[in-house]
Fold:
Amino acid sequence: TVPSMFAATATRRSTGAAARIWRFISTSTHRLTPDAGGEPARLRGVQEFLDFRRAHPEQCAIVVGALDEWPLLGPDWGPERLRDEHGDVEVPLEVSTGGADYRDAYREDAPRSRSRTFQADHLVRLGDFIDAFVLGGRDVPPGVSAYLAQHDLLARIPELGDACSPTPPQVGDGDDAQRERTMRRCWFGPRGTQTPLHRDPYHNVLAQAWGTKRVVCFPPSDEDKMYPFTANGFLRNTSEIEDVDDADESEFPLFVKAKRVTTTLNSGECLFMPAGTWHEVRATSASLSVSYWWGRRGTGPAGA
Structure:
């Protein structure tokens, strides 16, 4: 059952103290203990990015400086402003209980349980979502989580789109025409939201606006060690591995041999992932990210 707190209109309003707390969370540079495999390279500027792409076509990289001009990173923006000025915008949420994710909805062998449920496209007011989950202004039943995932919120709220401008110049591999054709999607939610281990068919620049995310990546050439749902068409890009930090070696023996790269993505940074990169993403604080997708595997500078 979807939590009933969405039925009520938000009554909580911003305070200076809450704004200061959010600013502290969204700019935190706390890093988790890194996993084996180290962290990705750090790049600045388009030419350095393109040179890296040619030399290392399967490797991820942190891009710094690309969001320096974004108004969204400045003191005038935060989730409370988004709630107060655009709270009536209706958005589709992923609502889960008991740690469920989209795999529970689509895998045929998923155990059916009232304590572990997943519902996609649950429509609510943006303001109610921010109050209940992002700012924690209402009581939420234990084990319930909500995530505004893979939604073009910047098109729905043009002012927010303007605040996420300019587009990082690395998007589209520095090609203006390609950058204009890029798909753009938002990810917005509380600490603890997670996207399971999967791959996308496009190159991806994940721009971290607010908060922090932990991302674990594996190169496309390690697909034979990722254990995708081969018998399920919808989940064929998703791994059966529930948790990359606690995989059952007897069930997934090849996974331990995969080349892992782990990073904590901070506010103002971008993570580039080549098409086909397997990755798991976890929000380590309340978080707003923007994905820019373009091209496919084998496209890019010198065929990268």
About this structure: The first helix runs from residue 16 to 26. The chain has a mean pLDDT of 87.
